[in-house]
Design a protein that fits this description.
The complex is a heterodimer of chains A (about 160) and B (about 450). Chain A has about 160 residues and is α+β, with helices and mostly antiparallel strands. Chain A is about 45% helix and about 10% strand. Chain A starts with 5 loop residues before the first helix and ends with a helix. Helices cover about 40% and strands about 15% of the residues of chain B. In chain B, the strands form 4 sheets. Chain B has a 5-stranded mixed sheet with strand order 8-7-13-9-10, with no helix packed on it. In chain B, strands 3-2-1-4 form a 4-stranded parallel sheet, with helices on both faces. In chain B, a hairpin with an 8-residue loop joins strand 9 and strand 10. The chains are: A alpha+beta (about 160), B alpha/beta (about 450). The interface between A and B is large, with 50 and 58 residues. Bound molecules: flavin mononucleotide (FMN), iron/sulfur cluster and FE2/S2 (inorganic) cluster. The site of flavin mononucleotide (FMN) has 23 residues of chain B, from strand 4 and helix 16.
C-alpha cells in the first residue's frame, strides 16, 4: 500500500461526508482524489476505494473503464487535451493537434492518448470543452486555454511546462 | 439597427471590477431576493415560477413550474435538487460563464428553488473538465455558509440547506438527467427508463428529485425579483423571459449573448450581433440548438404557423434569417432551440466532414445500454468516416440513412434522437454532397485520421 498523506485521508473523509444517505455516491469523488494524488487508478486504488465504501472492487473498476477522465496507467506530467468537436474543428483543432505533435515530436493514433517517451507529456483529443466560441481550445492539466491558433501561442504554453 | 441585449443573468458577467467573491455579490444586491423569498410560503414561490412561464434552459424546454409540481403531494421521503452543470452539448458554453464569473447568482437561485421545494440537501453536478469551476463553487458555498445563507437555520429561520459540488468525469451522457442521477449514485451513467423513473417522482436514491439546468435556476432568482407575471412579459407568449445564446463557428464575433426569447431572429443574431460570416464568406448552414439539433440550410424556406394578435393563426413562408429564436418557432422550422448553442458554417464547409465530426462525438459518447444506439452510432461514424476518406461504397448513403432511421424512438433515452437527427437532417438537406462522396466505388481501407 502506498503511504497516505494525512491531507489525502482528510479529503477522503470529507468527500464521504457529503453523501450522508448513500456512501457509494462518493465513488467518483474518491477516484478523482486518488488520481490527483497518485496520477492514475491502480489496482491497489480500486481495492482501497472499494473497501473504504463497502463495495466490491468490480463496482469501482466498472467506473474507471466507463468514465473517460480516469486512467489505469500513468500519464505525462503535462496532460494536453485538445478539443476535437465541431466548433473547434471549424476553428482549426486538427492543426492545433498536429502542431502539438510536431512541437513535442510525438507520433501516434489521434484517437487515443499519445505519450512522449520522456514521460513529460500526454497529448489527447477530447470532446467539446464548453468553450466553443473561442475555438480552438485546449487544457493543460487543470488550466484552460482559448484561441490557441498559432505556433507562438503553443510555444508560450509549452514554455511554462517544466 | 441591431437588437439590444437584455441581460438579466449576464448583468454582471464581464463587467469591469466585478469579482466572484461574496462581498462583491452583496454590494450588488446579492441574496436580497433570497431573503425575501424565505419569508414567503413555498406554494407561493412555485406559483410565481408557474406564472412566469419559465421553460428549462438545459435542452428540452420543459416548463419549470410544472416540473416542480410533479413531486407527489403525499410524498414523505426527502426531496433532492440537482443543478445540472454538466454542460456538454457541443456548441454550448453559457453555464461556464455563470459558474466561473458569478457563482453566487447560481447559489441564490438554488437556495430559492430548494426552499420552494422543501429540499434540504442539494448537489451541483459539474462536468469533470471544469476543475476550477468546481473550486470556485466550493469556495462560494463556504462563503455563503459563513454568512448563513446556507447551512443550518438559514438567516434565523427553521430552514436548513446543504449544497455540495459533485464532479463528473468526462462522459457526455451524465448531462441526461437520469444518467446524471445514476452517476451521482456512484454508478455508470446509464440512463433510466421513463416511466417509471421520472426524477420528480423516483430520482436520486428513489426519492423525488428536481433536476434543473444552471441557467434555469438562475432565472428563478430573477422571477422572484420582479414577479412571475412581470417576468412573463419578457420574451414572447409561451416563450417567456430571456435566454442566453452561444454562437460559434464561422462568424466574425462568436460569443455568448442574452436576449428576450423570440425577440431576435437568427439573421439578426448572425449579421448584427455576430458581425456576419467570417472571411467575407457566405452562410451555408446553421445548427441552431446544440449539435443534436437538426441542421438548417441557408437557402431553405420554412413554413411556419404564427398566432396573430387576434388569436387567429396564419401560415407564413420565411427564410432562415427570419426565424425568431424561440422554442416553438424553431420546432416549427423542423429543428429545436435546444441548449441555445448556435453553430454556424460557411460555404467553404464540407457537410459530410461536418457530419463525420458530429458522428464521431456520438459514437464516443453512447453509454452502450441500447443496441440501436450503441451499434448505430458506431456504424454512422464508420460510414461518414469512410465517406470523408474516399472509401465510400455506392450503397453507403442508403445504409447511413437506414441506420439513422432505426435508432430514434427505439432507445431508453433521448440520446437516440440526439445522435440520429444530425445524420437524418444533413442527408435530407444536403443530399448532393453525400451523393458525390458515394459515386465512385472504392474498397480501400479508410485512412485513420481524426476529425
Ligand atoms: C443526451 C443528453 C444530454 C444532455 N445534456 C445536458 C447538459 O449537459 N446540461 C443540461 O442542463 N441538460 C442536459 N440535458 C437535458 C437534461 O436531461 C434535463 O432535461 C435538464 O437538465 C433539465 O433541466 P431544465 O428543465 O432546467 O432544462 C441532456 C439531455 C440528453 C438527452
Ligand atoms: S439511447 Fe444511447 S445513450 Fe441513451 S441509454 Fe440508450 S445507449 Fe445509452
Ligand atoms: S467544440 Fe471545442 S469547446 Fe466546444
Amino acid at each position: 500500500m502506498p503511504q497516505f498523506r494525512p491531507e489525502f485521508l482528510a479529503k477522503v473523509d470529507e468527500a464521504i461526508a457529503h453523501y450522508p444517505a448513500f456512501k457509494r455516491s462518493a465513488s467518483l469523488p474518491l477516484l478523482h482524489l486518488w488520481q490527483e494524488e497518485f496520477g492514475y487508478i491502480s489496482n491497489e486504488g480500486i481495492h482501497w476505494i472499494a473497501e473504504k465504501l463497502g463495495l466490491q472492487p468490480i463496482q469501482i473498476l466498472e467506473l474507471v473503464t466507463f468514465y473517460p477522465m480516469f486512467r489505469q496507467k500513468p500519464f505525462g506530467k503535462y496532460h494536453i487535451k485538445v478539443c476535437r468537436t465541431l466548433s473547434c474543428a471549424l476553428g482549426g483543432s486538427s492543426e492545433l493537434h498536429e502542431r502539438f505533435k510536431k512541437t513535442l515530436r510525438v507520433e501516434g493514433d489521434p484517437h487515443g492518448p499519445i505519450h512522449s517517451p520522456d514521460g513529460k507529456y500526454t497529448l489527447e483529443f477530447v470532446e467539446c470543452l464548453a468553450s466553443c466560441g473561442t475555438a480552438p481550445v485546449c487544457m493543460i492539466n487543470d488550466d484552460f486555454h482559448e484561441k490557441v491558433d498559432s505556433q507562438e501561442k503553443i510555444n508560450a504554453l509549452l514554455a511554462k511546462c517544466n | 439597427m441591431a437588437v439590444e441585449e437584455k441581460r438579466l443573468i449576464f448583468k454582471h458577467i464581464d463587467q469591469p471590477g466585478y469579482t466572484i467573491d461574496i462581498d462583491c455579490y452583496l454590494r450588488n444586491g446579492g441574496y436580497e431576493i433570497a431573503k425575501k423569498a424565505l419569508t414567503l410560503k413555498q406554494a407561493d414561490i412555485i406559483n410565481e415560477v408557474k406564472a412566469s412561464g419559465l421553460r428549462g434552459r438545459g435542452g428540452a424546454g420543459f416548463g419549470c413550474g410544472l416540473k416542480w409540481s410533479f413531486i407527489p403531494p403525499t410524498n414523505t421521503k426527502p426531496v433532492y435538487l440537482i443543478c445540472n452543470a454538466d454542460e456538454s452539448e457541443p456548441g454550448t458554453f453559457k453555464d461556464r460563464q455563470i459558474i466561473y464569473k458569478d457563482p453566487h447568482q447560481l447559489l441564490e437561485g438554488m437556495l430559492i428553488s430548494c426552499y420552494a421545494n422543501r429540499v434540504s440537501l442539494a448537489y451541483i453536478y459539474i462536468r469533470g473538465e471544469f476543475p476550477d469551476g468546481a473550486k470556485i463553487l466550493e469556495r462560494a458555498i463556504e462563503e455563503a455558509k459563513k454568512h448563513n445563507f446556507l447551512g443550518k437555520n438559514i438567516l434565523g429561520s427553521d430552514y436548513s440547506l446543504e449544497i455540495y459540488v459533485h464532479r463528473g468525469a468526462g462522459a457526455y451522457i451524465c448531462g441526461e438527467e437520469t444518467g446524471l442521477i445514476e452517476s451521482l449514485e456512484g454508478k455508470r451513467a446509464y440512463p433510466r427508463i421513463k416511466p417509471p423513473y421520472f426524477p420528480a417522482v423516483l430520482g436520486l436514491y428513489q426519492c423525488p428529485t428536481i433536476v434543473n439546468n444552471v441557467e434555469t435556476l438562475c432565472h428563478v432568482k430573477h422571477i422572484m425579483a420582479i414577479g412571475g407575471a412581470e417576468y412573463a412579459k419578457l420574451g414572447t407568449p409561451n416563450n417567456t423571459g430571456t435566454r442566453i445564446l452561444c454562437v460559434s463557428g464561422d462568424v466574425n464575433k462568436p460569443g455568448y449573448y442574452e436576449f428576450e426569447v423570440g425577440k431576435i431572429t437568427l439573421g439578426e443574431l448572425i449579421y448584427d450581433v455576430c458581425a456576419g460570416i467570417r472571411n467575407g464568406n457566405q452562410l451555408k448552414a446553421i445548427i441552431p440548438g446544440g449539435s443534436s439539433a437538426k441542421v438548417l440550410r441557408a437557402d431553405e424556406t420554412f413554413k411556419i404557423k404564427q398566432k396573430q394578435a387576434d388569436g387567429s393563426m396564419i401560415e407564413k413562408s420565411i427564410t432562415i434569417n427570419d426565424i425568431p429564436m424561440d422554442f416553438d418557432t424553431m420546432a416549427a422550422a423542423g429543428s429545436m432551440a435546444g441548449s441555445g448553442g448556435v453553430i454556424v458554417m460557411d460555404h467553404t464547409r464540407d457537410m459530410v466532414e461536418a457530419l463525420a465530426n458530429i458522428n464521431e462525438f456520438y459514437a464516443h459518447e453512447s453509454c452502450g445500454q441500447c443496441t440501436p444506439c450503441r451499434e448505430g452510432s458506431l456504424w454512422m461514424k464508420k460510414i461518414t468516416t469512410r465517406m470523408t476518406h474516399g472509401g465510400a461504397r455506392k450503397e453507403d448513403l442508403g445504409l447511413l440513412k437506414n441506420v439513422a432511421d432505426n435508432i430514434a424512438g427505439r432507445t431508453i433515452c433521448a440520446f437516440g434522437e440526439a445522435c440520429s437527427w444530425p445524420t437524418q437532417s444533413f442527408i435530407a438537406k444536403f443530399p448532393e454532397e453525400f451523393e458525390n462522396k458515394t459515386k465512385t466505388e472504392t474498397l480501400s481501407e479508410p485512412i485513420r485520421t481524426a476529425a
